[in-house]
Amino acid sequence: FPEDLPGAARVTRADQAGGPEVFTTVETPLPEPGPGQVLVETRAAGVNFIETYQRSGVYPVEYPFVPGTEGAGTVIAQGDGTEGPQIGQRVTTTEAATGTYASHFLVDAAKAVTVPDDVSDEQAAALPLQGATAHYLINSTYRVAPGETVLTHAGAGGVGQILTQLLKAKGARVITTTSTSEKAEIAQAAGADYVLTYDTFADQVREITKGEGVSVVYDGVGKDTFTGSLESLGVRGTLVLFGGASGQVPPLDLQELNRRGGLFVTRPALHWYLRNAEERAWRFSELFKSLTDGDLTLNIGGTYPLSEAGRAHDDLEARRTTGKLLLTP
Ligand code: NDP
Question: Beta strand pairing status for 264-266 and 233-241?
Fold first, then answer.
């Protein structure tokens, strides 16, 4: 363990479930990397909707809880026998071993992705979780073909803007939803062909598709959109429910899928799609290429100091944000 390391780390943590006010920022001992791990000095950590479910208690966690699995920074120490990223190298990850709402975090070297020189620190922090999510949704959960018409919700959001751009790069036609006209403009700038409102989207999707419905819906909004998403699908269509920004979806009567045309429903999560080194390397090499080719631009909607993680959560939950939110130590 090198001796010129800082004496302490700072973390933002919750000691109980609750609102955004439960977060406090405190000093803690610098974490020591175990065998196979690296210690990363954080340049920026990504804020993701899942951390609001964990903070509020919708998803149970152990306390004290330091949120965050996504972060980018520089390797400053290695555990025994660690191969992979070297001290001084820039890395990014969606799979940190300790919370990334912190000045330093640990990650298994195998899960630390080396950042190419032409990718900035900000891009490196903003890309991985929402980028890898968009990548698996459209390439693995349901593989979208050129010319296909697709519905994705919350088109001005973090995942939403990346999904739209990657879908357009594939040659798909993208229909999305947003809650305000300002957000509609952002979704359009990301490339959406149609931006609808939440109240009438299912009827409008039928009109746009001349009564056929779409072959796939990517729904991260959940409770408020789920029924409309089913109504938007054509025969044998697939509903990919990947989140619940408006709340969790209640139990579903499977006969509903029969009545509506032999539909498919799946509820994926990123870790089921980053199962090994090959899968991780494939997704990240394609995402880095999309960035450097100009197919993908990352829109940073807000950068907050680590001590204001609660404000970031409040803004995210109140639908005030667009694009990616970052925390800087
Ligand atoms: P976003 O930036 O998309 O923020 C959420 C957006 O959802 C809001 O901006 C809002 O956009 C929309 N929304 C609709 N109804 C509500 C509501 N009642 N309360 C709050 N927001 C609402 O967040 P992320 O990009 O981080 O995440 C998007 C979704 O993807 C989340 O559900 C998240 O859990 C999920 N996710 C799932 C993953 C997986 O692997 N399964 C991985 C990553 C994210 P508008 O105002 O336009 O409606």
Answer: parallel
